[in-house]
Design a protein that fits this description.
The chain has six helices and nine strands; from the N terminus they run ααβββαβαβαββββα. It starts with a helix and ends with a helix. Strand 1 and strand 2 form a beta hairpin. By secondary structure, it is α+β, with helices and mostly antiparallel strands. The protein has a seven-stranded mixed sheet.
């Protein structure tokens, strides 16, 4: 009986701990604790755009931004996302000029400044491409918690496995939310309208 009673006390204690953790988490989020996650995304970087200009983290201040990480040899996700972003910029009308859209390569070995310029010529001219040295790109990928991995092919070539979401940042350069790959257009556009209105 004593061991059964001890087991019951143990189970109740575990339940109390779980409830306390859940309650604490909900309280923290209600007090704005979600911003802790946002504060972990971002950091200093120095890259080059498709026109040869140097771009740093300072470029993300003073206006809302959308960041997408991919590469120009991507067969589907990247061109689809860049096409969608081009359409959203047009649908935003004059507010589209308030949003800065950046396409950051995860494959700087092939995505040179010239390659980025040629590739982005097929999309809205307001989209800025960013490239740089491998260490410089890796620094930004780490700062923004972006997954990417080189995947060798049988023919000696390779592709890049990478995150497919678009990061949305407010005018202070703080992460606010994402656009998921092929998110419903009306939902995505609503998020962008809210972002530029802020």
């Amino acid at each position: 009986m004593t061991s059964l009673r001890a087991m019951r006390y143990g189970i109740w204690a575990a339940v109390v701990v779980v409830v306390a953790v859940i309650a604490g988490t909900l309280y923290w989020q209600s007090r704005g604790g979600g911003s802790v996650t946002a504060s972990l995304i971002g950091g200093p970087f120095t890259l080059t755009d498709q026109h040869g200009a140097t771009v740093t983290e300072a470029a993300l201040k003073g206006h809302p931004s959308a960041l997408f990480f991919g590469y120009t040899f991507c067969p589907d996700v990247c061109p689809t996302t860049l096409y969608d972003m081009s359409q959203y910029l047009k649908q935003l009308g004059p507010d589209g000029d308030k949003l800065k859209v950046y396409f950051v390569t995860v494959d700087p070995e092939r995505d040179t400044q010239a390659q980025m310029a040629t590739y982005l010529g097929s999309f809205d001219p307001r989209i800025t491409g960013l490239t740089g040295s491998r260490p410089a790109i890796d620094q930004m990928l780490k700062a923004y918690r972006i997954y990417s991995k080189k995947v060798p092919a049988d023919d000696g070539n390779y592709s890049m496995d990478h995150a497919a979401s678009v990061y949305l940042l407010d005018k202070d350069g703080t992460f606010t939310s994402t656009l998921d790959y092929q998110e419903k257009p009306d939902v995505a556009l609503a998020k962008l309208k809210k972002l530029v209105a802020g």
